[in-house]
Amino acid sequence: MRFSKAVVKYRVPILICALLLMIPSVLGMAGTRVNYDMLNYLPEDMDTVIGQNELLEDFNKGAFSFLILEDMPAKDAAELKARVEQVDHVDTVLWYDSVMDISVPMELLPDTIYEAFNSEHATMMAVFFDTSTSSDLTMDAIREIRSAAGEQCFVSGMSALVTDLKDLCEVEEPIYVGIAVALACGAMLLLLDSWLVPFVFLASIGMMILMNMGTNYFLGEISYITKALSAVLQLAVTMDYSIFLWNSYNEQRRLCEDKNEAMASAVQATLTSVLGSSITTVAGFIALCFMSFAMGRDLGIVMAKGVLLGVLGCVTVLPALILVFDRPLQKTRHRSLIPNMGKLAGGVVKAFPVFIIIFALVLPPALYGYNRANGEVYYDMGRCLPEDMEYVIAEGKLRDEFNVASTHMLLVSADVPAKDVRAMAREMEQVDGVKYVLGMESVVGSRVPEEFLPESVTSMLKSDNWRLLLINSEYKVASDAVNAQIGRLNDILKRYDQGGMLIGEAPCMKDMIQTTDHDFKMVNAVSIIAIFLIIALVEKSFTLPFILIAVIEAAIFVNLGLPHYLGQSLPFIAPICISTIQLGATVDYAILMTTRYKTERINGADKKMAVHTALSTSIPSIIVSGMGLFAATFGVAVYSEIDIISSMCMLMARGAVISMVSVIFTLPALLLLCDKLICATTAGMKQPKHPKISNVEVYAK
Description:
Blueprint lengths: L1 H8 L1 H21 L1 E3 L11 H13 L4 E7 L3 H12 L4 E5 L16 H7 L4 E8 L6 H14 L3 E3 L2 H34 L5 H19 L5 E3 H32 L3 H29 L7 H21 L1 H8 L1 H6 L10 H9 L1 H23 L15 H13 L3 E8 L4 H12 L4 E5 L1 H5 L10 H7 L4 E8 L6 H17 L4 E4 H35 L4 H23 L6 H30 L4 H33 L3 H31 L1 H7 L14 H4 L2
Parallel strand pairs: 1-6
Antiparallel strand pairs: 2-4, 2-5, 3-4, 7-9, 7-10, 8-9
Helix pairs in contact: 1-10, 2-8, 2-12, 6-7, 7-8, 7-9, 7-24, 8-9, 8-11, 8-12, 9-10, 9-11, 9-24, 10-11, 10-21, 10-23, 14-24, 15-22, 15-25, 17-20, 21-22, 21-23, 22-23, 22-25, 23-24, 23-25, 24-25
């Protein structure tokens, strides 16, 4: 109570302090780098990651792109190549004039080399950068190349994807944060009992969101998914805490003559309740930190931090704001638009066997769809972008003109004899889907000494430690075909060079598929176990955690199973994150109702009366909370053109509604069905000797 009284007493200094903290928060947010490359989050000990680092350190080459030039005369192409070579952080550009003078007809090249870089309507250049794939410097270079090349030039490769993704995110983010705020505010205006209080909530939550984003500066960088989702999620999840404080304050005002005393009591009640509620949400986000794919840790830390800051704001900044604006808040109060839920609760209690049957019938197809949908996710980040983005168009040109869908890079020890490298390359070219293997041996052939080549070419393809070869494939990144191809190429490579490494976007994606498949099982297990233990401790029950988690997990199965029946493919990160987020964020609905049911049973109510009271009193809070999460995410899902953001927000919006419906209709039925078992396995819940009279007909009136 001492803390609560201090908050009330020092409300003005608290607000001044919070406003002053906005300055470093905004600066910290502006200074936090955003990472748009998902491959950066792979474990550091993987061959693909080690190989990328070796390429950068040994060859001074990090990012790699193809430039496709349509219907451009050789002379103009040579001039463009010279301009591209002058772009900052372009290390080398490999094209025809890298090997021979432009005056020599291209047709004199070996057929393999000629066809690799030329089609009927286009020619192709390979561009190497001296910076990493997702470096800001690389993205600047990509933009400069596009600007210099004009409409006849198309830039492909992972760096082009990252550049387009960043540009689109920076345009969209302010808009969909605005949409989330507007729709959440609209939901609160409709569902709460004051026209002004939603804006006070938004002011308090907004300050905490800024603090959360500002403190990300100490993490060094965050992923674009974290940046895109964290503000929306923090708004949706922590809105509940604000609503609880407001309702508690108004209850205390009826009991206390002094508003300060009422607020102190409300803060105390809120702190006790919200801390218990927030622990399950934090546990859900912390579970993401157990992913070996480090993007989960990134999102988990930022969101857990956001929830804790939300709790802090709810018991410090929000009480101060409510007290400062108490008079206009009270004047703008109105009757809640949510009707009395006694009749609905009575109907649910009376027909509870029906909801048990529905639950039993829905669960098998939901579980089937859930398991199938997890196998139908996609990993190709290019699918996240709209069809009219420059990267997507460039990749289409590369496939149409050159039948190249992905490019691998091969690092072979410089100690491996040239004849073995040639034999290995010939063997690799026989692998299904491999168009050609391009390296020093391909350029000079077996009869031409390497010394005949200019140093610019030899340094591009050979260092003191490694030989670099390019493998162009007809198979798309992250497809089953390319993954099988990579496995076969690695088998061949290891026979010739045990320390050799196959790197590039497709091999990295193959590693990502294996990593995240393990992560999905790990994160699910950790989140369920952690939340089970928390519920068991909070409710002092062995049975209730099983029931509550079963209700929310069933809602998750329905939510993540629907894409299978709708013929939709999800980005790979969505099922991993959504299953944890939905469990952590919506299990509170079930805890709220169950806690009231327990209280009623302990106070002597029979099972039907206890469930009826718990349901009728909990429904308004569950609806406000669920619709708040729905409103904050649905608008973003509809607006965003980035599929990974749109898909995750749609899953969160739909998950909020499904969890809300599941708790309102399924949980009461399970509580009634398992009442004897619950009473026997829950501390303090002995069957009352003289239970209150139950009359379901009365409930239904």
